[in-house]
Design a protein that fits this description.
Elements: E1 10-16, E2 21-27, E3 30-37, H1 42-45, E4 56-61, H2 67-76, E5 81-83, H3 104-116, E6 122-127, E7 130-136, E8 142-149, H4 151-160, H5 181-208, E9 212-217, H6 220-229, E10 234-236, H7 240-254
Parallel strand pairs: 1-4, 4-5, 6-9, 9-10
Antiparallel strand pairs: 1-2, 2-3, 6-7, 7-8
């Protein structure tokens, strides 16, 4: 692709998660528009794409991928579509025993964090349906991580797998100890997640000199607040997976793989 020096590069990233999909338009590396949808369809993308041509699209999914959706998407970006799979080249080394089963969203989130802080060891937290906590070393290598239930899954399981515990949400104060059943559940679930992240950071700091936590996901606001109260250095990046997809796309473009 031949480009003029003053031409803006426009890339679309799409992250299909377990419960929702997020599409982000990037212009020269900055997010300028986005949308979120439970089940993303092409018609929903068209308003995002009407203000100019795209140079490419990077897509990842943790669900079954609809072949017709991808083929239509490929046509909309003139064939410049990268679908993140285990065979795609990455701008980092992955030290994970089963690369084929490593979630593409985890790979992209880590790539996004490294693109922001390329010379630091990082703890990368993505709190969605599941909460993933991954760690990088200062050389930008993916060293591994943990998977546990996300906040809604924890609340739901307590309600569904017991006879009398109510369904609680995270809207409300999280105390050190609850004063009734609702606050006890809320404090146990949210406080437990915060302690889990803080414990992982402590291990990551001891092992790799981890300097900060980069966090994304729908639960990041409350988690960030409570983690900061513990004195931890937190960076919230709502477009972390999209930023990582962009970084992987540009790495492959510059390497001649696209």
């Amino acid at each position: 692709m031949i480009r003029c020096d003053d031409t803006i590069m426009r890339i679309l990233t799409i992250d299909q998660g377990n419960t929702s999909a997020k599409a982000v338009v990037w212009e020269d590396g900055e997010p300028v528009a986005s949308l979120k949808s439970k089940d993303l369809i092409i018609e929903e993308l068209l308003p995002l794409m009407e203000n100019g041509e795209f140079d490419g699209c990077a897509y990842c999914s943790v669900r079954h991928t609809d072949a017709k959706f991808l083929e239509t998407l490929r046509r909309l970006v003139d064939g410049n579509l990268m679908v993140l799979t285990p065979s795609v080249s990455l701008p980092m080394l992955v030290h994970y025993g089963t690369r084929a089963t490593l979630g593409n969203d985890r790979v992209a989130a880590v790539a996004g964090a490294i693109s922001i802080f390329p010379s630091e060891s990082l703890l990368v937290v993505d709190s969605g349906t599941a909460m993933t906590i991954d760690v990088t070393d200062a050389a930008g290598n993916f060293m591994g991580g943990n998977i546990s239930p996300g906040i809604q899954m924890r609340f739901s399981s307590l309600h569904q797998l017991t006879d009398q515990l109510p369904l609680v949400d995270d809207e409300g104060e999280v105390a050190a100890f609850g004063s009734d059943t609702v606050s006890a559940i809320r404090s146990g679930v949210v406080g437990g997640m915060v302690s889990e992240i803080a414990d992982c950071f402590e291990h990551a700091h001891a092992l790799y000199g981890c300097s900060r936590i980069v966090i994304a996901g729908k639960d990041d606001r409350k988690l960030c607040q409570m983690l900061r109260e513990r004195g931890l250095k937190i960076v919230a990046e709502p477009n972390l997976v999209g930023r990582g997809l962009l970084a992987i796309y540009m790495y492959n473009l510059n390497s001649g793989n696209l």
